[in-house]
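Recall from the previous chapter that SMILES is a line notation for molecules. Here it describes zinc ion.
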Amino acid sequence: MANNILNSLLREYEQKKIKAELELDEKKQNLYALYPRLLEIDNELSSLGIQSTKSILIQPENSSNFVENLNHKILDLKKEKQDILLKNGYSADFFTPDYECNICQDTGYIVDNDFHTVMCSCLKQKLLDISFNKSNMYGLKQENFEHFDERRFSDDVDLSKYKFNISPRKNILNIKNKCMDFINKFDNPDSKNLLFTGATGLR
Ligand SMILES: [Zn+2]
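With both inputs in hand, we obtain:
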């Protein structure tokens, strides 16, 4: 169960991260169209970054002057890029994705001072919130009847496979109706409780 919750949170994190990066990419492309020099600068910066890494890997002993030179160029280009942004009314951090958590950049994990990978405080907080919420209803935004789609269930009747003489779709619709009935009569003292059963690990 705990693993399920963590996995589900990490999937949410991954989606948040991808969304933030895609949004940034779109913003970038729009800006490149307006200020082509920014695209040139970014291309130069990635090329210089690759040259610097290559030089350190291939000739570590002779690389210091060369790398220092590259670093100067990189700093100059970054300064030019920042000047273009500020001069045109954009913030200096325009090229930073809009992460929900800037500490872990929506990965859920950070590297601590001892170089160990540890959970970020945002992920710990989410797990704490969930463990305090005894009913595990953290996914209600997604997991609710508005997102219920019976088409996910087969419309075939197959007694030997499903052990029912109705299709899984008909069965889930019956269950849904019973749940809706339960909700609608929730404040009726005569209505009975619902009990869901199944093999361990099912949700
Ligand atoms: Zn975080």
